[in-house]
């Protein structure tokens, strides 16, 4: 039945995107505001309310039956609150309650942004047809989500699959999260660039010192740039192999800005996986680039809303 319609929000540190999405994952109406990330919590919420107000102005709004929210995290789906690292005004902020009120009382589902992207890739993208998958977002941070037994597995608070904070180097650098040697501390874009600079790589005349610039240098054969991406690839491989060994996934999907580096990242990643994914049941693990692009967060939030709406209401009796 393709008359299903849900509202979706994708909330990040840069922008708040909203959409009305149908049961096939097509975006029918869009709205967007810049995130006033450094303002107080209620100012940020006003931008969310404006996005919902734009959607509510559409003649299709009356058909929306639920609201899906994908947010930068940490999120706490059980409490309906969010504390995004890059939005300091929101700490334990009651986003679900406020968004529901702004959306006229629609039932709301909250998931982390990594889980939202996973939902999108499983529904429409690179993980489609796979019952057990890990989807990763490798960009400023490293996030992710899991599909197990054909279903999204967000976990009790909505953060399951957060592979960026698996430690892959016991004596490694301290991570801002408080642990040491986390995947994110080695493989995120800023850390790839930091490592390259520390080891003597220098940006070109334009001064661009981003991971994308390091990737371009690696493609051109710069040994230091290549080594920085190989180090990131090993960290990702170790985290993916640990996850596969634990829960038996058969595909890992890599998205995010760093994922766009293509073979500079994926070739050493596939090679390194052979060193870490050694047991018989993880050796056939595929690695694929994400397919959903910038709409993944919205489509995934919609998928969560559709799934939540279809879920039985007898959960208390299970």
CATH H-level superfamily title of the largest domain: ATPase, nucleotide binding domain
The counted number of beta strands is 12
**N-to-C series of helices and strands:** EEEHEEEHEHEEEHHHHEHEH
Please describe the biggest sheet, giving its number of strands, its sense, and whether it closes into a barrel.
5 strands, mixed
CATH architecture of the largest domain: 2-Layer Sandwich
Structural class: alpha/beta
Question: Which of globular, elongated, flat, extended, rod-shaped describes the shape?
Answer: globular
Quote the average pLDDT: 93
Quote the distance from N terminus to C terminus: 28 Å
H/I helix tally: 9
Strand order of the largest sheet: 3-2-1-4-7
Would you tell me which CATH topology of the largest domain applies? Answer: Nucleotidyltransferase, domain 5
Low-confidence stretches at least 5 residues in length (pLDDT < 50)?
A: 312-318
Approximate strand percentage: 15-25%
Helicity range of the residues?
A: 25-40%
Rg over CA atoms: 20 Å
Please give the CATH class of the largest domain.
Alpha Beta
Total tally of structural domains: 2
Family: Belongs to the ROK (NagC/XylR) family.
Pfam families: ROK
Protein name: Sugar kinase
Keywords for this entry:
disordered C terminus, 5-stranded mixed β-sheet, Nucleotidyltransferase, domain 5, 318 residues
